[in-house]
Sequence to fold (263 residues):
Amino acid sequence: KANRAFHPDDSIFEIGGRKIGGKDIAIIAGPCSVESEEQIVGIAEAVKASGATFLRGGAYKPRTSPYAFQGLEAEGLELLKIARAKTGLPIVTEIMDPATLDQFVEDVDIIQVGARNMQNFSLLKQLGQTKKPILLKRGLSATIEEWIMSAEYIMAGGNEQVIFCERGIRTFENYTRNTLDLSAIPAIRKLSHLPIIIDPSHATGLRYMVEPMCAAAVAAGADGLIIEVHNNPEKALCDGPQSVTPEGFSHIISKVAKYAAVE
Ligand code: PEP
Ligand code: MN
Fold:
């Protein structure tokens, strides 16, 4: 169902009055984690003013250490809803546990499947039973073929609104957090009609690389970007070193449009 051969035209999804796929570049921005009402509403207002089309923010966080901040969980979802009500930005947030599925279907505009759950097949099957758009991150060491098969797990259940997100893969290189596989953009565009967006924040782990990787992604034909933005990156509870400030975000957005790929 994801295969371009049976669906030659690009899929375009309309979500909360915004489009993903087609000629517009979707801009999803916000903090790694929702930390407080003031934080999420402030960031949402700032990124909206600079051109973001969706708000991101983790409520349930997949942290490497169980002793690290795990997210505000249900309260985080409530705060995202407040930020959406104040700005009109549709919300994107990660699901970890099928036990929260009904809540996510009710509250969230795009449900994110994190890299660590890309092959959680029972979760994918349950998402396939919903009608919600799914942002499917590439697994830490997943091949393009495995990633597309995970999209098929969702689509096989009848939910065809899947958006791929390349967020860097594991390689021998450890200067960057991961290695951004820009070649995933033309590969997915050739193999599938589904949109593909790029996460330069998790791909590099380094704030100064976010702008050049956004430019490269857009030039290579990405359908969108998902960028971590924090009002005070030094104090962020998660992923501060890769988070840009609202001012930095505004600068990036003013620059990237001119790199857009010519068809
Ligand atoms: C995230 O987007 O907050 C996240 C945890 O990303 P990933 O699953 O790509 O590591
Ligand atoms: Mn993060």
Q: What stands out?
A: The chain is about 35% helix and 15% strand. The radius of gyration is 17 Å. The mean pLDDT is 97.
